[in-house]
Design goal:
Arc Repressor Mutant, subunit A, 5 domains, alpha/beta, 9 strands, BglG_antiterminators, Mga_HTH
């Protein structure tokens, strides 16, 4: 799910345009905009005029200028475009419908359409649109209620509210007491961000735990291998005691959900997870997958190249990834995936994407045989694997040494060497320097014939994109 899907078509295109402007460096011409938005010149002019008006309340903090041919975005250093976007999302009728379903459990079309100041037919259309969004979470709105597995409903609302920065302000004494009970009972200390996550989870739980006959069938079946987990057994009396003041019978599934949340939703610190990992069974589906993926990564980079602390960091992140992949479907996409992949291609010296695909195949085999690549959780898992590999790629002790040997006039020689150095030094693990015959190089870049016992690349045209692409290819193979 992308947040733009909560907006009307025009607003979604405007937000998309702003993001593409930022990715492009703050400026685009009208031909690029037409390609991105797939609109006529007249429609683009109207979109941009409205955007300029929408930005006026922000004054000099955020501005758009348009001369009919080029649009330029600018902002002050302390302003984030997120402020503008978030205001759109929070005021959108689709978000308000979702919020009403959380607060009231069941919505009255007549009353809600009056509150949102829209017609009942418009409300029905927006609910149909929401059902398209909710489908990847295995949820749907039916007869005024949100239908689906309770675990998926809680997970969806937590993700939605967390990324919109809603629902974890002004902690009460009772909420603080519950969090302290969990910390003390599990011998953990939550960081401030982790406490905010727990607080939001508690509030979503409170709103949903009184729902009559919640569905837990699939979740309960998946949880079966975790019933003997030491952390879960510790959590049982803590949650029962902490929620004793609610006038409802606490179902065992509620405690199961708390366990999955604590261990899989970025609540445990790496130190806390390490202590837990020494006790947990290695034969649960996710723990087994953690081990298989970690072993694969170690083989990719070579066990000797990855220090123990880096291995533990990798193991910690994998545990979060696999718990979500095993227990849930769907995700909230807060980042532009295509931009992340393009950035990886410019910075990485190794073919990380092929390694990511390898890890995805393995985790699909272990956790989700029917994984759908169009599902956002699956797509975001690829980005998370990319992030784990990027951390290793940067920190692993692997250097590619490149020497530059040019026979040119001194001016062109210096300028070309500086250009190549600037472009190649940005690659992870690459060291670029002037050629020194006393040193060993993995690659030598030159414009003349050289008799060396190493890889050589002869440039064809100064500053050509082709040469740079081929040089990067050789570096990846080094």
């Amino acid at each position: 799910m992308r947040f733009e899907e909560l907006l009307e078509k025009k607003e979604a295109k405007q937000v998309y345009l702003i993001k593409q402007l930022i990715i492009a460096g703050g400026q685009m011409n009208v031909h690029e905009i037409r390609k991105v938005l797939e609109l006529t010149k007249k429609s683009i002019d109207n979109y941009i005029e409205e955007l300029i008006e929408d930005f006026k309340p922000y004054g000099k903090c955020c501005q758009l200028t348009y001369d009919g041919a080029t649009i330029t975005f600018s902002k002050t250093p302390d302003f984030s475009i997120e402020e503008f976007e978030k205001a759109l999302y929070l005021n959108s009728p689709k978000y308000q419908i979702l919020l009403a379903l959380l607060e009231e459990k069941e919505i009255s079309p007549v009353r809600l359409s009056q509150e949102l100041k829209i017609s009942e037919s418009s409300l029905s259309r927006k609910i149909r649109d929401l059902n398209k969004i909710l489908k990847e979470f295995d949820l749907r709105i039916w007869q005024g209620k949100l239908m689906g597995e309770e675990s998926q409903i809680r997970y969806f609302y937590f993700q939605l509210l967390w990324y919109l920065k809603q629902g974890y302000a002004q902690i009460s004494a009772r909420e603080s007491h519950i969090i302290e009970n969990i910390e003390r009972g599990l011998n953990l200390e939550f960081m401030s961000v982790a406490k905010q996550r727990v607080l939001l989870w508690l509030r979503v739980t409170k709103k949903r735990m009184t729902i009559p006959d919640p569905q837990f069938k699939q979740f309960k079946e998946k949880f079966e291998p975790y019933k003997r987990d030491p952390l879960y057994l510790k959590l049982l009396p803590i949650i029962r005691r902490s929620f004793s003041f609610y006038a409802v019978e606490l179902k065992e599934e509620e405690i199961m959900l708390h366990f999955v949340f604590l261990t899989g939703m970025s609540v445990l610190s790496q130190k806390g997870f390490h202590a837990y990992s020494l006790q947990r069974s290695k034969m649960t589906p996710t723990a087994w997958c953690d081990s298989i993926i970690l072993e694969t990564i170690l083989r990719i980079y070579g066990p000797k190249n990855i220090r123990k602390e880096l291995e533990e960091t990798c193991y910690y992140h994998l545990s979060q990834i696999h718990l979500r992949l095993y227990f849930f479907v769907g995700d909230v996409e807060a980042y532009d995936r295509n931009n992340i992949w393009q950035l990886e291609e410019t910075l990485s010296t190794s073919n990380i994407q092929s390694h990511v695909n390898q890890l995805l195949e393995l985790s699909a085999k272990e956790l989700q045989p029917q994984s759908n690549e169009q599902n956002s959780l699956w797509a975001m898992t690829a980005i998370k694997y990319l992030s784990v590999l990027s951390i290793i790629d940067i920190r692993v002790n692997r250097e590619v040494r490149v020497g530059i040997y040019l026979q040119l006039d001194e001016l062109f020689k210096e300028a070309t060497k500086n250009m190549l150095t600037l472009q190649l030094n940005s690659l992870n693990g690459v060291i670029v320097e002037s050629f020194d015959e006393t040193r060993h190089y993995d690659l030598v870049i030159t414009n003349t014939e050289l008799d060396l016992d190493t890889k050589i690349y002869r440039i064809t045209e100064l500053g050509s994109a082709y040469d740079l692409k081929e040089i990067k290819k050789l570096i990846r193979q080094a």
